[in-house]
Design a protein that fits this description.
The complex is a heterodimer. Chain A is mostly helical. Chain A contains 4 helices and no strands. In chain A, α1 (3-14) crosses α2. Chain B folds into 2 domains: 7-312, 3-Layer(aba) Sandwich (Rossmann fold); 433-524, ANL, C-terminal domain (GMP Synthetase, Chain A, domain 3, 2-Layer Sandwich). Chain B is built from 16 helices and 26 strands. A 9-stranded mixed sheet of chain B has the order 2-1-11-10-12-13-14-15-16, with helices on both faces. Chain B has an 8-stranded mixed sheet with strand order 7-6-5-3-4-8-9-20, with helices on both faces. In chain B, strands 17, 18, 19, 21, 22 and 23 form a 6-stranded antiparallel sheet that branches. In chain B, α3 packs across α4, α5 (98-108) packs across α6 (120-127) and α8 crosses α9 (224-235). The longest helix of chain B is centred in the N-terminal third of the chain and has 17 residues, at 40-56. The chains are: A mainly alpha, B alpha/beta.
């Protein structure tokens, strides 16, 4: 599974924007719609898409998209 | 005395005339912490160019021009340019969804919207349903897309940096913010150029800024605080501001406070509560010796935050209260007034506030009633756009009814109690239940819905939704996600309910009106009160 491609689909769905092209370095500062208020919905959608559950401590300080990808990948491999 | 009442002029050319041409008007810090200093002279030139460009397209006095952008320098150039030409500047949060944009632009019959490429798709979704909307100006588009979607940089090319601001009557409309109510769509709150007198006075008396201060107001320009005390209040007195293009992160905010040697900081209780949660990241890590004091606005500042700020940062924090409609501080804490933690403070000079019970002024201390303000302060709103009957209903003789409940203690301090309507206040943003309910009803599985506000330790209030689903459908995480994404993109992420409860039916009176107070009492485990009118 190409986790980055799947994550891109989730971001596009949550933010209703087909033009979103994720890179590992991308942060909330790079995407206008991604703010602290939309973050909860985004993570819920990621959990739902990959059928995984994130613990609060795991997602409190995710620095960028690459870290979210790695976390999703780790959960999928577990 | 200034020769012109125009806010755009007073924040730029007038400052240059006062000898501040080279002084930094604002320091722009982008999300990577790159700095750009913008002097009052440059701010004057750029806003002149923006005014010239808009006039070249045929726009002018009275036209409504909306800004739909995140924090960026172009916000200030275009905002002040619009005001200089006596057009009306409408402000939108950059996280607004398509319904939120449509409702505001259609109500205001906006002719122009200024935006950036990343937000253009939402404008495209609604622009063909907005017959008054003639031009979409995109600040980061290289070339025009067509006759309607235009490149602002291309339009600015060759535009002169001089502009003569016409004499502006104080009653000339200036700024249009939308605010939510219990029922119906958001209401357009119109302010005028003469409002600046009140904002100038409160920057002096409440914020007490001095010429060498470095001031940071974290409020978005979509919010009334972001314009009044994040743009023109401080600039009309020549103060230096910092504007930040990054999102909220504990480390970023404290880095900025330290690096930029912020002396006066204006923020919101939700942000402070988030900082409290992560105090281990800041404890002893940052030198905030330049910071003199902090102000707060948007939600009541609970005593716990005041004590935390004193203990952790060694600073004093002052709560301020005002509304979109009041256009400036009304009841405040400020240096020179002893703080009673948890209190709103006292009315600013020139403002009279009273408590009313049964539509009569009540002078008995500690009586909870409606908070009324005596009419006549300079920044009082002049209309709710297109709904004069709603505007008139807000006044009782000489008093404006704020819609808030409060009390006054023996010492004349005001204490906020709550709203006397169903408007919800998550993190300082007012959300009308009707807007959220209307959007939720667009979800195919939902047949009936009611939303309420409930106390929240982080956001002050959260939105709680009660839904009735089609027969044989059970509430699921998938439906919740669908609701969340729909509300977020249609209205705004701030309007997304935090909790959802499925119910077989909703409590209504015999006319079919949803009894939100019954739902709220049930949710909070309180007595339901009078339910004699409830349909069973």
């Amino acid at each position: 599974m190409d986790v980055m491609k799947e994550l891109t689909d989730v971001f596009q769905m949550v933010f209703d924007d087909d033009s979103i092209a994720l890179t590992p370095e991308m942060t909330a500062d790079d995407l206008d719609a991604w703010d602290s208020m939309s973050h909860v919905t985004l993570l819920m959608a990621v959990e739902d898409h990959f059928n995984v559950v994130f613990e609060n401590w795991e997602i409190m300080n995710l620095p960028d998209v690459g870290a979210l990808r790695d976390l999703a990948q780790k959960k999928l491999s577990a | 005395m200034p020769k012109n009442n125009n806010i755009g002029y007073l924040c730029t050319a007038y400052q240059c005339e006062q000898g501040r041409a080279e002084k930094t008007a604002f320091r722009w810090i982008d999300s990577d912490f790159h700095r750009t200093d913008v002097s009052f002279e440059y701010l004057n030139w750029e806003s002149n160019r923006y005014a010239n460009a808009l006039e070249a397209l045929g726009y002018g006095k009275g036209d409504r021009i909306f800004l739909y952008m995140p924090a960026m320098p172009e916000v200030h150039f275009s905002f002040l340019g619009i005001l200089k030409m006596q057009a009306v500047a409408g402000l939108l949060f950059s996280n607004f969804g398509k319904s939120a944009i449509y409702d505001r632009l259609s109500d205001a019959e906006a002719k122009v919207i200024i935006t950036k490429k990343s937000l253009l798709r939402r404008v495209r979704d609604v622009m063909n349903d907005l017959p008054s909307l003639e031009t979409v100006l995109v600040v980061d588009l290289k070339d025009d897309e067509d006759e309607k979607i235009r490149s602002f940089p291309a339009l600015l090319r060759g535009k002169g940096a001089s502009y003569t601001v016409a004499p502006t009557d104080p009653q000339t409309p200036s700024v249009l913010h939308y605010t939510s109510g219990s029922t119906g769509k958001p209401k357009g709150v119109m302010h005028v150029h003469g409002s600046l007198e009140h904002q100038r006075r409160t920057v002096q008396d409440v914020l007490q800024l001095e010429q060498d201060d470095v001031y940071w107001c974290t409020a978005d320009h979509g919010w009334v605080t972001g314009t009044t005390y994040g743009i023109y209040g401080p600039w009309c007195l020549g103060h230096t501001q910092v504007h930040f293009g990054g999102t909220f992160k504990t480390e970023s905010w404290f880095k900025l406070l330290e690096q930029e040697k912020i002396t006066v900081w204006y923020t919101a209780p939700t942000a402070l509560r988030m900082l409290m949660r992560e105090e281990n990241k800041i404890k002893g890590q940052y030198d905030l010796s330049s910071l003199k004091r902090i102000y707060s606005v948007g939600e009541p500042l609970n005593a716990e935050i005041i004590h935390w700020v004193r203990r952790m940062l060694g600073k004093e924090i002052y709560d301020t209260w005002f509304q979109t409609e009041t256009g400036g501080h009304m009841i405040v804490n400020r240096p020179g007034l002893a703080i009673k933690p948890g209190s709103m403070g006292k009315p600013v000079e020139g403002t009279a506030a009273v408590i009313a019970v049964d539509d009569k002024v009540c002078e008995t201390p500690d009586t909870v009633g409606s908070l009324w303000l005596k009419k006549g302060w300079h920044s009082m709103f002049v209309e709710y756009l297109n709904i004069p009957e709603v505007y008139n209903a807000k006044f009782h003789g000489e008093y404006y009814d704020t819609g808030d409940l409060a009390k006054i203690d023996q010492d004349g301090y005001f204490w906020f109690v709550g709203r006397n309507d169903d408007v919800i206040n998550p993190s300082g943003h007012l959300v009308g239940p009707f807007e959220v309910e209307s959007a939720l009803l667009e979800i195919p599985e939902i047949v009936d819905v009611a939303v309420i506000g409930a106390p929240d330790p982080m956001m002050y209030e959260k939105i709680v939704a009660f839904v009735t689903l089609k027969e044989e459908i059970e509430w699921s995480r998938k439906i919740e996600l669908k609701c969340r994404i729909h509300i977020s993109n249609r209205l705004s992420p701030i309007a997304v309910p935090s909790e959802y409860y499925q119910r077989e039916k909703l409590p209504k009176n015999r006319s079919g009106k949803i009894l939100r107070r019954v739902l709220k009492a049930e949710y909070l485990g309180e007595d339901l009160g009078d339910v004699s009118t409830m349909e069973v």
